[in-house]
């Protein structure tokens, strides 16, 4: 409860977010200097779960994702994890119509000119996870501190703490996209967990940042499942399936067929599918399923490939 409160406080106060972002960057630099990739992965996993992962014979979903960090270095994962470069991948696959509109792309914070932007938009760090600014009124943003936060993003990488390999040599950029809403009043995202080219589960969230937050998993027929990530399922809260569920499944499986595991996120705006992102290590692959036994159950679905070196 205390940790959840502190996270909400940090996310609602840009000055605290800046201090936290700075601390995380320094911590990541120190981590890179002190530990090998395997040492850093074991340390992160053990600090979170209280036990070391079995990297020699991984069995659980979380252990297998740690193994993939170390041994599956497919250059296509770097392209697809990059929020800008993945657009070229989708276009090549024939899904360019799923892409949200780009307003601007910046390599440096000095290029960001607020006056040139519309009133509403979203800014994302293309090389990060959760490094986003959702802007509903640009005149209410403290641009002095937010530019400092985004500059920290541009000089940071999520490779350092969790050694998520695709981010190791990714170019830091900021991408500004069109602001999207749907009938929920938020922007519902549908996260497809794909194992060896087969969609198995869909994660859907409702009521984020509220006391009634639900994060449910569903099978492909939209039957609620008895597990969750971070949160236990809330069968008392109804989350409707997207209108384009079957088409989303088809696209997710097509996009995922080159990878042992990937989570593919979509939005649905007025029945139109909008691509979100591709994620290869949700929560850095840490064992956060509830109940925890599903870490093993989902691990059984993931068939590891032969190692691929850099």
TrEMBL record:
The protein, known as: Uncharacterized protein
InterPro entries: ATPgrasp_TupA (IPR029465)
Origin species: Flavobacterium profundi
Top-level lineage group: Bacteria
One Pfam family named in its UniProt record: ATPgrasp_TupA
């Amino acid at each position: 409860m205390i940790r959840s409160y502190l996270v909400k406080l940090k996310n609602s106060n840009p000055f605290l977010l800046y201090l936290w972002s700075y601390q995380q960057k320094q911590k990541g630099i120190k981590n890179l200097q002190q530990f090998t990739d395997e040492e850093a992965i074991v340390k992160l996993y053990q600090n979170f779960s209280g036990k070391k992962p079995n990297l020699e014979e991984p069995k659980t979903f979380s252990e297998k994702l740690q193994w993939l960090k170390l041994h599956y270095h497919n250059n296509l994962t770097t392209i697809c994890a990059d929020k800008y470069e993945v657009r070229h991948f989708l276009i090549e696959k024939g899904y360019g119509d799923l892409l949200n509109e780009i307003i601007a792309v910046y390599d440096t914070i000095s290029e960001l000119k607020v006056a040139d932007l519309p009133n509403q938009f979203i800014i994302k760090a293309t090389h990060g996870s959760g490094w986003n600014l959702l802007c509903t009124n640009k005149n209410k943003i403290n641009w002095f501190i937010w530019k400092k936060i985004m500059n920290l993003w541009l000089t940071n990488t999520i490779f350092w703490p969790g050694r998520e390999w695709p981010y190791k040599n990714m170019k830091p950029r900021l991408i500004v996209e069109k602001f999207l809403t749907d009938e929920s009043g938020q922007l519902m995202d549908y996260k497809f967990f794909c194992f060896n080219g087969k969609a198995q589960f869909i994660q859907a969230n409702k009521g984020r940042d509220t006391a009634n937050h639900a994060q449910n998993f569903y099978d492909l027929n939209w039957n609620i499942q008895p597990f969750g990530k971070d949160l236990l399922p809330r069968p008392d809260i109804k989350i409707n399936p997207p209108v384009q569920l079957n088409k989303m499944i088809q696209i997710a499986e097509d996009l995922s067929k080159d990878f042992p595991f990937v989570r593919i996120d979509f939005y649905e705006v007025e029945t139109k599918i909008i691509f979100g992102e591709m994620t290869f290590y949700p929560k850095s692959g840490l064992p956060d399923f509830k109940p925890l036994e599903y870490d093993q159950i989902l691990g059984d679905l993931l068939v590891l490939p032969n190692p691929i070196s850099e």
